[in-house]
Amino acid sequence: MPDQAQRTRPVAPGPSGGGDGPSAPKVDKPNVEELLKRMRKVDPDQAKRYRQRTGQ
Questions:
Q1: What are the CA-CA distances from residue 9 to residues 2, 6, 14, 15, 45 (Å)?
Q2: DSSP tag of 20
Q3: Model confidence pLDDT, tens digit, residues 12-48
Q4: For residues 44 and 50, is the Cβ–Cβ distance under 8 A?
């Protein structure tokens, strides 16, 4: 039975990624206050229902 040949493992990419895959897009986070205002317009009773559902 022949001996198995030693295989070298590929070197892992560095901390900078170095991979060929896609990277995360650079986008700004939305303004939270504006988002909450819009949510209140859509469903003003949502907070009340959430408190009832979670028992708070």
A1: 21, 10, 15, 18, 58
A2: S
A3: 655 555 567 888 888 887 777 887 788 778 777 776 7
A4: no
- Token readout for 51 is 């408190």
Cα angle value 14/18/24 (rounded, 5°): 115
* Strand ranges in the chain using DSSP code E only, listed in sequence order: none
DSSP-based three-state secondary structure for 13: coil
- One DSSP character per residue, 22-47 reads ------PPPPHHHHHHHHHHH-TTHH
Q: Is 43 helix (H, G, I), strand (E, B) or coil?
A: coil
Residues 28 and 25: their CA atoms lie apart, in Å, by 10
